[in-house]
Amino acid sequence: MKLSRLFFLVVTLFVTGLKAQVRISIADFGLRPNTGQDARPFIVKALNVCKQTPQATLYFPQGRYDFFPEGGIDSVTDILKQKITTGIILKEMINFTFDGGGSEFVFHGKMQVASVQVCTNLIIQNFSVDWERPFISQAEIVDAQDDHLDIKVDKKNYPYVVENGKVLFIGEGWKLPILTMYSTLYDKKSKDIAFNTWDSTLGSIFEEKAEDLGDGLIRFYGNLPFKPLPGTTMVSLFHVRYFAQGIEIQHCKDVLLKDILLYHTLGNGFSGYRSENITMDHASVTVNDAKGRYFSSVADASHFSECKGIIKVLNCAHTGQGDDFINVHGTSVKISSVADSCTIKVSAIGKGAGNSMEVGDEYWFIKATTAQRSAVGRVFSKIPVIEDGQIVAYQITFASAIPAEILKGDFLECKTWCAGLEIRHCRILKRNRARGILVTTPKDVIIEDNYFSTAGTSILIEGDFDYWFESGANNNVQIRNNIFDNCLTSGNKNGSRAEWGEAIITITPSYIPKTVDAEPYHKNIHIYNNVFKVFDAPLVRANSTRGLTFTGNKLIKTTTYKPYTWQKSAFLLDGCREVRIEDNIIDSTYVTRDILIEHMRKSDVKFSPEERYIIKPIVGVNTRMQW
After folding, report:
1. What are the start-end ranges of the E strands in 172-252?
2. Which of 54, 66, 269, 581 could form a disulfide with 297 if both were Cys (CB 3.0 to 4.6 A apart)?
3. Which of 26, 22, 27 is nearest to 9 (CA)?
4. What confidence tier does 21 reach under pLDDT thresholds 50, 70, 90?
């Protein structure tokens, strides 16, 4: 179809007011699959036409399409200083469908897959994404001794050089070292995270002197804190961290992500910010097994911050990502100072900053000492405070007086942008580092009919005033009809937050109760009708929760792994109220019956007598996880 015919069709549709979907092929703009051409300029032209076409679908004939950064990838340069090129930009699109037609989108160099901005009623579907040369490499461990480590690298897929005793891996337009922080270990056969391994399990060995032994063998000299069994362990070698998002959605409404496979991205796979109603259906971040890989994205599979409406995650199975399955949260803003009865100042730098605050947004005021939501204020004005040409803070004025008790060091939480969450029919596996589902929101949360087999904690509910400032005390969480199968193989062994969770379900807001009467942070978290297959003791670790129930669950003891966790009780509770543990079916070989409590009365916990639990105060155990 020539462009003139296409524009004629557009005009005709506007005149007739037809509602039919208009199918437009990228081939009409000169782009054919499997040519190696940069798809970006063709997509720009096509989207300009689609924006003028009601109910348009942009369709890609099936095949391979390549995406290249601006300026090309001809030479190895300082990749950290290069700008990020976005492959697909969807901006202000309404009633539009982007259909990859089952194609493979292959990216090169420093790129973001897609930026989706200010769109309404949008469908993105039917394609996979990969990198010709990903920003993660991998190797097999072939020898581990007291004074050195030998790894075997497929040099064709993961080329490298050793210069001045340091290994630099080579990509398209980049040459980068190994970042010690992750260096995730995998079981070679199952591709699961290796049992009882975490971030940097091998210590700083990859920062030590290296020697190229030839034929893809690299020797690192230094002491090993952990000796993996040679021939059974693979290691992922990260070269970047939080580099660029995959598919990023901002200020949009009613977005469907369907039948998408992200084999690699340079940050979070799917990211949503200040958007309303996002659905992921068969949209997964996943290992490209056909290429023999163990990794996928650099960071979370999906991450949604300050959204509203409902986030729905259906039929997804993420594997190999460098962080959690999903994280849905608001953001705490720390008050730097109080200027007058209506005005405060917040920082513009670092965590807890107020950059996202917008005029018209409503915020809860929260005392740091109680962590309770109180009055609501609406932002009337936001004025930047500039020093040496840089915005360092904002002066925020509210439409009405702030509560008199709110002072410097207290917090704000956005009431306007809070999303509900529904996760159904997903597989949350131990093929990625860290945890499964992270969620903090006052809106309803439903997690049901999923299969969990995670390396860390399966479900983590926090509420964070001291590190990431990811906020949102929960009011109603339903965790039901799920299977938890030998989860927590890399949980808290030594009592450190750098490990990946204290129990299968972990509820640990940073607010710490001080007395037996302190009002809890979270409310109404219900865990029922699930199956727990467990090799170790800890089921639930919960802080500061009112209305916590664990009912109608089935517990099956396994011997698949050896017990190791520092939490030796089934339940470890701090500052919880109205706890019910009732009507559970417990395997006779699961003998743990301890419920340890702190800042609680025994009467705060009710349990079925036949389950024979014993409530004990916590004695001699430091329950405060530290970074």
Report:
1. 174-176, 185-187, 210-214, 217-221, 233-238, 247-250
2. 269
3. 22
4. confident
Instruction: Tell me the two tokens of residue 275.
Output: 């958007």
Calculate the alpha carbon distances from 222 to 197, 200, 203, 204 in Å: 19, 14, 10, 9
> What does the block give as tokens for 35?
């040519």
Distance between CA atoms of residues 198 and 187, nearest Å: 13
User: What is the spatial distance between Cα 557 and Cα 532, in angstroms, rounded to a whole number?
Assistant: 8
What's the confidence (pLDDT) of residue 625?
Answer: 61
The amino acid at residue 624 is R
189: number of Cβ within 10 Å: 8
Overall average pLDDT of the 238-261 stretch: 97
Query: From CA 430, how far away is CA 462, in angstroms rounded?
Result: 21
Pairing of strands 362-366, 411-414: antiparallel
Distance CA 613, CA 590 (A): 12
The CA distance from 567 to 505, in Å, is 13
Side-chain-side CA neighbours of 296 within 13 Å: the count stands at 31
Cα 620–chain centre separation: 34
Q: Which helix (H) or strand (E) segment is 40 a member of?
A: helix 40-50
Distance (Å, whole) CA 604 – CA 608: 14
40-50 and 3-16 helices, crossing angle to 10°: 30
CA–chain centroid gap for 179, Å, is 20
Specify the pLDDT at position 624.
Answer: 72
User: Has residue 10 got a pLDDT over 70?
Assistant: no
Please state, in angstroms and rounded to a whole number, the distance separating the CA atoms of residues 325 and 427.
Answer: 10
- Measured distance CA(530)–CA(625) in Å, rounded: 27
- What is the C-alpha separation between 593 and 569, in angstroms, rounded? 7
Residue 463, Cβ neighbours under 10 Å: how many?
Answer: 25
Q: Is the pLDDT of residue 627 over 70?
A: no
**What pLDDT score does 339 carry?**
95
User: Quick check: 619 and 569 in contact, CB under 8 A?
Assistant: no
- In three-state secondary structure terms, 414 is strand
The pLDDT score that the predictor gives to residue 429 is 97
Q: Looking at residues 131-155, what average pLDDT do you find?
A: 97
Report how far Cα 136 is from the mean position of its chain's Cα atoms. 18
In total, the chain counts a number of residues equal to 627
- Phi, psi (rounded to 5 degrees) for 435: -110, -170
Write out pLDDT tens, residues 206-228. 999 999 999 999 999 999 999 99
How far lies 32's CA from each of 36, 60, 63, 64, in Å?
9, 9, 8, 9
Question: CA-CA distance, 310 to 423, in Å (whole number)?
Answer: 10
- Taking phi first (over 0 means left), then psi (-120 to 50 degrees means alpha), and beta for anything else, what does residue 325 get? alpha
Q: What is the 3-state secondary structure (H, E, C) of 61-84?
A: CCCEEEECCCCCCCCCCCHHHCCC
Q: How many CA atoms lie within 13 A of 477 on its CB side?
A: 28
Question: What is the pLDDT at residue 626?
Answer: 52
Q: Helix, strand, coil: what percent of the chain each, to 5?
A: 5, 45, 50
Confidence of residue 13 (pLDDT cuts 50, 70, 90): very low
